Amino acid sequence: MDLLPISTPHCRIERDGHVVTVTMNRPEARNALSSDMLVGLASAWAYISEEPGVRVAILTGAEGVFCAGADLKAMGTPSTDPAVQERAARIQDYHWKGLLRLELPTKPIVCAVEGYAVAGGTELLIGTDLRVVAESATLGLFEAKRALFPMGGAAIRLPRQIPYCHAMDLLLTGRSITAAEALRMGLVNRVVPDGQALQSAREIADDIASSGPLAVQAILRTYRDTLGMAEPEALKVSDEYGWPVIGSEDAKEGSRAFKEKRPATYEGR
Predict the structure, then answer these.
(1) pTM for the structure as a whole
(2) For residues 49-71, average pLDDT
(3) CATH code for the domain of 204
(4) How many domains does the chain have?
């Protein structure tokens, strides 16, 4: 994989073909969020959206831990790297963009979790589209227990993603849950043996990358843009995004590949 120059000391961003892997890289602090990390995350999400050849991203943490949440001191302390300082000044609301609260990428994100994914770590997970979790991982939204508030958007997003009673259980009690419980709640897609989350996430990412990129992006956009709409209005938006995909060159290639019993080669047009 190629290390991209938008990486920061606490965020490693690598590209391998159509897949970008974003690694939170502050293992000495259990990958707790810092300004360095959030600038890197915000830069990664912008790159993933803007780069035509990128089709899917993976978000993970270094050295067997996903993210232990916010480090308020480190988040409030500017980076010592001049290039990161300059980028932080340029990226408006980089904290919220990095945390996936604002301007979600136009391409899907697969989350690969080992170890702790708590507080802000769970909020990051909730901002992704597909989630693979190692069997001994720990998840949880601890904010209410500490008289805080989940500012990454979990109070809104979680009840929309899993049944209300499960969402309120996590949000109001501030308790931790196991990977198995997260799977039963519908919060994650797969539970895998420890050490295999990234490999499993890459398999999912490769499946997505082999699909038609216009179709994948239109499906994501349709879901996001129709939240809260009545079905008739939502179907109009779905048609607006869907018909251009049906008429695309990729759609023709998909039909040809099916008839010829071969893998399709999509170009995003």
Answers:
(1) 0.96
(2) 96
(3) 3.90.226.10
(4) 2
